[in-house]
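Annotated sample (chain length 454).
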Amino acid sequence: MEHIEARIDLPAEPSVVWKQLIDTASMASWNPFITSMSGVLAVGERLQVRIAPAGGRALTFKPRVTIVQPDQRLEWLGTMGIPGLFDGRHSFTLIPLEQGRTRLVQAETFSGALIPFTGKLLQRTEAGFQAMNTALLTRLKVAAVKVSGTEGVDLASIHAPERAVTIDGPPVGFLQNDRNESVDGSTPQDPILDNTANIRLNTSAPRPPDRSSGAPRPHQYPDRDKDRRTPDPRNNQSISGSTNQREVNAMSRRMVAIIVGALFVVQMITAVIGNSLIQSFGDGGTATAPPTIGVLLMLCSGLAVVGIGLLMYPVLKTVKRELALWYPILRIVEFIVSTVGGIYLLTQLHVVPNQMLWVYIPTGLGGLVLCYLLYVSRLVPRPIAVTGLFGYLLLSLGVLLDLLGVVDMNAGPGQLILLPGGLFEVVLLPVWLIAKGFNSPSPRGQLKPYAVTP
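Output written by the structure step:
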């Protein structure tokens, strides 16, 4: 678990700071970190947030709101694909100070099994927090000058545009926390009051036409009424910004590419070392020294394999969902077969006959599914996908020939059968994913967003 935060004291009341934070219509004009945000600020709802970490690529993700306490605290939880792999709990906390000032604490707690692979992401995120806090301070000062024309204006009188937010919940004084207590410590009398305010991040709704003044009735002008169904691009109050419905979650795609590339290397290295230890034991090792380390290494390799399958599924399913589903299934089967063989070895002190061949069967089939989908979608250069197709096809053919006694894939020239697949898994695909990430899909293989849409 990793925690980062950035604090700053602002010369404005918490209500003023809160309105500036949720005035997302103008966020892109001043915020160097969170450049756009859309959705409904209500517990359980999903937002679409685009950030620009310092020194990194712009990322888009869809966190779920967990806390909304106007003028006090806003929190959301973002996950990458599967909860528990890489989660981030982002919060804005407003602490009132003397003389009408506010302390803003922007923090995020990261957790999950993939934290060690995040690299410089946390440092860039923390730098983004600081840049945003500083920009907010500057925005408040500039707003004060514009309102009063002097530097000595009372910033508590500055308000964001009233139509930047609509609050449909209970009065702020009666907001409840998770213990059913109000903010001021008293117990609310009305049991219907919710624990959060329902804040809708959109522009003011269009007013109904004034029919008394001769305004047109609905459907009087069908073409114009039809246009009302789509957002007006001239409306700068809309916080959906330039977000395209077909935009893929950039944060997940980039992180998935890096992590999958690293996991391919990890699973191959641990599998080679673990298998060599197990094979050495089977060829003449003593029964008093079971290859526990070899089995543990194979277990680590299997876990990496499962991680690859689960992380790649959200990407591959946008190409062909029915076929993509088989990739994580086959990777899980591969892990189960390898684990069962390891348990048998530790308990019986005998290697399962042709153990690796049984493991190679789901490996080859899953690899063919992966490389085919990579090929048709052009998520990686096609020469890389073709190398993988050839390698896994050769592996599957080698398993059949080995079971028939034609070749021995564990020794001599038979080991050359593993070379193309090893080149794909250790060098070509990992290096490309870590260095470049997934390519933008071609017009023929264009992907749809795989991020969850609320």
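Annotation: Residues 150-200, 202-248, 443-454 have pLDDT under 50 and may be disordered.
Annotation: The two ends are 28 Å apart (CA to CA).
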